[in-house]
Write a structure and sequence with these properties.
Protein name: Sarcosine oxidase
Largest sheet: 8 strands, mixed
Cofactor: FAD
Family: Belongs to the MSOX/MTOX family.
Structural class: alpha+beta
GO molecular function: flavin adenine dinucleotide binding; L-pipecolate oxidase activity; proline dehydrogenase activity; sarcosine oxidase activity
Bound molecules: flavin-adenine dinucleotide
Keywords: FAD, Flavoprotein, Oxidoreductase
Distance between the termini: 50 Å
């Protein structure tokens, strides 16, 4: 099911960003005979695996549990590959318990209906807190109602990304470059993009530039009212081998009302995090699409951009105290014996989502600049699509956006002020937090 518009195959493609969107696109181009004559270059500001990239972590939830049927369909097709041919050694099917206790129950009900429509017999409704406690093996319930889907799972994100990178390298088709893109090469007289200017002053020229710079994308293109970076907290607690073995059998627990979740341990670390509204980090930068002026003055814009441990002078990531308190309280509630003062978190991080107004991805040609395609807007849920999203992106590049994603992935008709964004209904926890202000209130020390 797709809408077709004929598009010429470019002779050269430059991909900016080596995360889920960029690397999977490179993989798909390598596999697709239509692109056998196309030169493919992938540039990233960091050596692989990007130490502060959103796609690199111990674990990511792999679920078809979506309130939106197209994502359930696509996630289900991705899962078929996770189970069989796509990095299966990095995929674990331990189940996912989704709960809520407020308006987010609407998302849970819609998601339940969608997974049931897949015909699975592995879903069990959890009507009360006792059910939730028993299924998840937790001391106190998180959320009042929900369901468990035993056919959902999680993947070792870094392991799977390394696996995919190896696959891409095996084609010997992609030129990998480690450099920071300073700006797109925009010709305003012709409304075209012909590649990228790098920080060292050199350029990368291509017929088609695919911008997939994750949460940094709004630093290279004016995406105000379309995409913004939001920071989400993650904490890790070391476990003994016996604790790890015990928790590994339990489902992932995701409370959509608080946003807090726990993924079974990986490599001796239990991860507690928040799928929330996150922190914004308003940053004033030169307008990424500014035309050169005779006076040399530069227009600026203010957008939320990532601030990571690589930006910090001490190369360590501090996290607002409120984030640690929220994760600690959640852990103390579900597994009190792991949350004693003698068991501190040993690692923390802020990981950056690229949020859109509706939680839909942005996979589209730019409406003004020919030669520019944008693949971003992961909105905190794109990892699970790693086995299939590259193929979908290439279909969109060829003008064949899948029918059920038309109007969802395409360039939005209007820019909407961020305070009016509704999201996809899956986010919980505090709203409206600004990173600098939260840091001023207190930073967590590990
Ligand atoms: C805390 C957290 C938890 C998540 N949990 C889940 C989950 O459970 N399940 C799920 O499915 N998804 C989850 N996600 C979402 C998923 O991980 C992301 O949607 C996905 O990884 C985004 O990939 P990306 O390619 O857009 O970004 P990235 O992986 O960040 O890749 C962007 C790349 O662009 C590069 N780049 C940026 N600027 C430049 C520049 N100027 N020049 C050159 N290179 C540049 C960066 O170095 C980076 O490597 C989670 C995300 C986070 C942050």
């Amino acid at each position: 099911m797709s809408s077709t518009k004929r598009v010429d195959v470019p002779s050269s493609i430059l991909i900016i960003g080596s995360g889920v969107f960029g690397l999977s696109t490179a993989h798909s181009l390598c596999k697709n005979p239509l692109f056998k004559e196309t030169s493919i270059t992938l540039v990233d500001r960091q050596p692989f695996p990007t130490p502060d990239g959103s796609s690199i972590d111990t674990s990511r939830i792999i679920r078809p549990d979506y309130a939106s049927p197209p994502y359930t369909r696509l996630a289900s097709s991705a899962q078929s590959l996770w189970r069989t041919t796509f990095a299966p050694q990095h995929y674990h099917e331990n189940g996912l318990c989704i709960t809520a206790s407020g308006p987010e129950q609407k998302y849970v009900s819609a998601s339940l209906a969608n997974v049931k429509a897949l015909g699975t017999d592995k879903v069990k409704i959890l009507n009360n807190t006792e059910h939730i406690k028993r299924v998840c093996g937790i001391a106190n319930a998180s959320g009042s109602t929900g369901y468990v889907n035993w056919s959902s799972g999680w993947a070792d994100a870094e392991g799977a990304m390394r696996w995919l990178r190896h696959e891409v390298e095996s084609f010997s088709r992609v030129q990998f470059i480690i450099r920071t893109v300073k700006s797109l090469l925009i010709d305003h007289t012709k409304s075209t993009v012909s590649g990228a200017l790098l920080h060292d002053g050199s350029t990368l020229i291509a017929d088609l530039t695919i911008l997939a710079a994750g949460a940094w994308t709004p630093s290279l293109l004016d995406l105000r009212g379309i995409c913004k970076a939001t920071g989400q907290v993650l904490y890790y607690l070391p476990l003994s081998p016996s604790e790890e073995a015990q928790l590994a059998k339990r489902p992932t627990l995701l409370n959509l009302s608080t946003g807090l979740f726990m993924i079974p341990p990986s490599q001796g670390l239990l991860k507690i995090a928040r799928h929330g509204h996150g922190y914004v980090n308003p940053t004033t930068i030169p307008h990424p699409e500014a035309k050169a002026t005779s006076s040399g003055s530069t227009a600026t814009i203010t957008v939320s951009l990532p601030y990571t441990h690589l930006d910090s002078p001490t190369n360590t990531q501090s996290v607002p105290q409120e984030g640690q308190s929220a994760c600690r309280t959640f852990l103390a509630n579900i597994h009190p014996t792991l949350a004693t003062p003698s068991r501190p978190f040993t690692k923390s991080r802020i990981c950056w989502y690229t949020d859109t107004r509706t939680g839909d991805f942005l996979i589209s040609y730019h409406p003004t600049y020919s030669g520019l395609f944008v693949a971003t807007g992961g909105s905190g849920h794109a990892f699970k699509f790693l086995p299939v999203i590259g193929d979908s992106i290439v279909e969109c590049v060829l003008g064949r956006t899948p029918e059920d994603f038309r109007g969802l992935w395409e360039w939005p008709k209007e820019r909407v002020p961020e305070e009016m964004w509704g999201g996809d209904g899956s986010r919980g926890g505090p709203v409206g937090m600004v990173l600098a202000a939260e840091m001023t209130k207190g930073q967590s020390k590990l």
